[in-house]
Design goal:
There is one protein chain. By secondary structure, this protein is mainly alpha-helical. 69% of the residues lie in helices and 0% in strands. Helix 1 packs antiparallel against helix 3 and helix 3 crosses helix 4 (94-123). The longest helix has 35 residues, at 147-181. It is elongated, with a radius of gyration of 19 Å.
Length: 182
């Protein structure tokens, strides 16, 4: 299959927004990947100051952080590809590339959105165990976590939603351009 590039006259409105969303998704992915490496190395900025953070990183969390860092860097590549004109992908079939983009979009929005909803329900005592069935003690390792810990987790949940929206915006722009190319 050969690459198809749309003439410049077919792209003026969608292409700049598409590139901006894709570039923002790349930046989001790289930043989150770097944070996961930082956390894997023992850093705690952004995780709060609770007992679980002070206890240090376990082997399982080290593996988790490193795996997520790799996924973030793969996500950066996917986001970069979303910003390009629709064309044949030499490394992966189109369906596989789009599956990765859709998975990033849905998983990030769901993870962040569920975390936000869980926290709101638990914090307002509408559901004392939130959506997850976990108490504050279960989630944070202590019954009364600091405001820094609570807000750190809320910011992380929001960051997940932001990433999903960036991927979704880039994906939508990419699909629009692909539709025009046909």
């Amino acid at each position: 299959m050969t690459s198809q590039v749309l003439p410049a006259t077919d792209q003026p409105a969608a292409a700049p927004l598409l590139r901006a969303a894709a570039n923002a998704a790349v930046a989001w992915s790289v930043l989150f990947g770097v944070f996961h490496i930082y956390w894997a190395l023992g850093g705690s900025l952004g995780l709060g100051d609770g007992a679980q953070v002070k206890a240090g990183l376990t082997g399982g969390m080290l593996a988790y952080d490193l795996m997520v860092a790799v996924l973030c860097f793969v996500g950066a590549w996917v986001a970069q590809e979303l910003g390009r004109a629709p064309a044949a992908r030499p490394l992966f079939p189109r369906w596989m590339f789009l599956t990765m983009a859709w998975t990033a979009t849905i998983a990030l929005v769901a993870r962040g959105g569920i975390g936000i909803a869980d926290d709101i329900l638990r914090s307002t005592d509408i559901l004392t165990n939130g959506l997850s069935g976990l108490t504050v003690q279960d989630v944070y390792g202590e019954p009364h976590p600091s405001a820094y810990t609570m807000w750190s987790m809320r910011i992380v949940d929001g960051f997940f939603v932001l990433g999903g929206l960036l991927f979704g915006t880039a994906l939508r722009g990419h699909l629009r351009l692909a539709g025009k190319a046909r």
